[in-house]
Structure formats: structure tokens, C-alpha cells
């Protein structure tokens, strides 16, 4: 297969992981070791930063081990789906749209190092906005390179938008002020300010940007980064955000042989979304950054993804119906109990990831650990039950001998087994009450 798609190397690196699962029945702790190693390697080779790779691999393995069987879905397909969902999450989940000002012109301040494609981007962006019916004006703020001003004027002509210039003798913050006034007079919708890049970050550039920012009070401050620089791009976004405060990033040169590290690291490392991506030198080559489409492109397995989604949907429906039937007939048994508890524990490991986001740390790691420990304890005891006992918890309620045997086989105390049995019956009562309320009836009285 010839891969002209971007991130081709990452795609084939990940493919190695799926291949290793061919012929397996389920995902287990053991059989995901090799595939997880492939995923880790593929991401590192794509120049994703190490802490990001570690968290990603951890999140994927947690889910892979806990994932239930879905009829008709093979383990490798299941893993593809899990990786896809985590990739989407990693890249910020939702598309992050440009924000427009409700009063007066929207001001977009563009920053970035030299050669990343900033000047080209000014014109691309104006062209992009034009298609949305918005007028724009470019302001030439790169006073250190007369060629940059000429380039902007040329590009402006090419896409048919005015360019405000004031030569190279005026301070950028002054040019910004004049340009903005001009735009207001002309009732322009969006003002796009080009600024001077440097080969590296230096104080002069940051100070200048701060000054321009103060004058413009921009709606968007976007850092333009070159996708070819991989995880370095994510570090740059972080630095610019700390120094001047930005609202997002634009990735350029995604059409080149960039490996994916920038696209995958920026949001996670800096907390700032990628809003737009440039995929070529032409004026049309600019588009919004869609995390889901990007993940889809990386995996190159759209059909597998939609198949797994459908299967999951069907199963959720069947599960819910079956569970409802069981509860109504008080048949809720240890198999259901285990299923439920596992689902809750899976949510626990999700909250752990959510917990890393500041302000969302409601569930403490200690609580999650506690829930996971409980699950292990219960699993051990339920595994020591016979299939008949699992389906008929009454047997255990009635027989201390059975409880004693389970305690012994699972290495737990009789008291712990009794507690588990009691818990199941409590759950039956709670669920039955809940169903009664949901059905609109009165709370049913319970015979057991
Ligand atoms: P600046 O120094 O940041 O203003 O960079 P320029 O806008 O002058 O662009 C530097 C070079 O990168 C030019 O040759 C552009 O044509 C090229 N370039 C810009 N954006 C892209 C892109 O998305 N893809 C590719 N392949 N080349 C790009």
C-alpha cells in the first residue's frame, strides 16, 4: 500500500499493534503488552513528548483490560477504537472555533518564529474568512524585514484584501494602532496583524508582542507553529502562552513529512487548542483542526471505527433491556453485579485522567484506588463461586457452608463474603425501588 497520507509512518507504526492481536479472543493484560509497546514506539517515533506518551499508553491499557466483550467485534478492532477515542481526547476532543468579536472588528494577532509560514498564513486566513463572508484587513508589522512587508502586500493582492503598511521606521505597536483605526473607519470585520518573527525566542520579540497586544486588545492571539518541529512546537506554545497569553495555535506545513508529534502534543502539553492547520503553500490550504478527523486520518480505519461504534450501541441497548428485566424480576445476580462494578471502576480510571485537569479534581486518586481495590476484592470472591451460586445468590444467603468455602478459596474472611452477599441484596432493593420510581408507580414492597 502506498501511503501518501500525512503521518504515514505513525499510521504504519500503529498498524503493527493491531496485527499482533489477530487471532486473539479477548483483550487481556498479557496479550496487550506487545501491542502497547508498538503504540508507545510509534508515538515516540512520531516525536510525541514522553510524558504525553506515558499517559496515553496508560489510559489505553486501562481501558483495554477493562473493556467487555462486544459480540462480533474482534479484540484488534476494539483496540483501534480505544486508541482512536484517546487520540481524539488528546487533541482536545472538540473542534476549537475561531472567536469573533461582537462589537467592533475582530482582531487576530499572529505570532511565531521566523520561517514557520506566518506571513503566508495571514493571507490564507484572510482568504478563509472571505469565504465565510467576512471582510478583513492585514497589518504589516514585521518592521525588520522590508521583504516581509512586500511579501504581505503581494499576498494581500493575490487574495484581494487590503494591507495596511507604515514602512519600517514606525514601531509595531504604533502601526497596530493606526491599522486598527483604519479598519474601524472602513468597517472591516476582521483585522489580522502580522508580527516579526525571530530565529529563536528572545526578550525583544516578547516585549514587542506584549506592547502590540496591549494596543490591539485582540480577540485571538494565535501562535503559528511549524508541524515539522514535532514536540518542540508544543513547548513553544507553552512558552508563548506563559509570556504573552495566547488563545490557541495554528499548525503549518502539515502536508510535509511531519510525523505527528506537534498535532498530538500541543493541546496536552500547553492546554491551548490548535485552531487551524495549514496543509500546503496555496491560499486555499487552510482548514479547521478537527481532532476526530485527524485521529481518523492517523488510524486510517474509518470503517472499523463505525462498525465498533454500531456494535457498542446495539450492545448497550440489549444490556440495558436485559438488566431492566432482571431487576424487575429480582434476578439481579453476581454476574450482573460484576458487570456493574467493572463499569464503575472503568469510569474511575477515566476520572483519574479528568482529575489531572485543574479545577476538576473532585475524585481523589485515593478514592479511585479504593474503588479499584474493592473491585479486586469482589472479583476474587465472585470468581470463587460456582456458576450456580453466581446466578442464585439466595444459595449463599442460606448456606454458611458455601460462604465458608468461598472465603477459603478466595483467601478472604467469612465476614467479607457475607458483606458481599448483603451488598448484592441491598443493590437489588435499591435498584428495584429506583425502577419503581422511574415507572411512576409507588415504591414496591419487597419480600426478601
Ligand atoms: P514566515 O517567516 O513565518 O512569515 O514564513 P513565510 O510565510 O514566509 O513562509 C515560509 C515558507 O514556508 C514559504 O516558502 C511558504 O511558502 C512555506 N509555507 C507556508 N505555509 C506552508 C504550508 O502549510 N505547507 C508548506 N508545504 N509550505 C508552507
Explain how this protein is built.
- The protein is built from 18 helices and eight strands.
- The radius of gyration is 29 Å and the shape is elongated.
- The chain is of the alpha/beta class.
- An eight-stranded mixed sheet has the order 3-2-4-1-5-6-7-8, with helices on both faces.
- Among the domains are: 106-289, 3-Layer(aba) Sandwich (Rossmann fold); 329-448, 434 Repressor (Amino-terminal Domain) (Orthogonal Bundle), CATH 1.10.260.
- The longest helix has 27 residues, at 302-328.
- Strand 7 and strand 8 form a beta hairpin.
- Helix 14 packs across helix 17 (400-410).
- The protein is 58% helix and 9% strand.
- Bound molecules: guanosine-5'-diphosphate (GDP).
- Guanosine-5'-diphosphate is lined by residues 112, 114-120, 197, 252-253, 255-256, 278-281, 285.
Considering the chains and any ligands shown, give keywords for the structure.
448 residues, alpha/beta, Rossmann fold, 434 Repressor (Amino-terminal Domain), eight-stranded mixed beta sheet, 18 helices, elongated, disordered C terminus, binds guanosine-5'-diphosphate, signal-recognition-particle GTPase, signal recognition particle, EC 3.6.5.4, GTP-binding
Beginning-to-end CA distance, first to last residue: 63 Å
Q: So what's the CATH class of the domain at 106-289?
A: Alpha Beta
Number of strands: 8
List each distinct ligand once: guanosine-5'-diphosphate
Q: Which ranges are low-confidence, i.e. pLDDT below 50, for 5 or more consecutive residues?
A: 351-361, 440-448
Order of helices and strands: HHHHEHEHEHEHEHEHEEHHHHHHHH
Oligomer: single chain
CATH fold assignment of the domain at 106-289: Rossmann fold
CATH architecture descriptor text of the domain at 106-289: 3-Layer(aba) Sandwich
Write down the overall geometry. elongated
Helix proportion: 55-70%
SS-based structural class?
alpha/beta
Order of the strands making up the biggest sheet: 3-2-4-1-5-6-7-8
The biggest sheet, with number of strands, parallel, antiparallel or mixed sense and barrel status, is: 8 strands, mixed
> How many whole angstroms does the radius of gyration measure?
29 Å
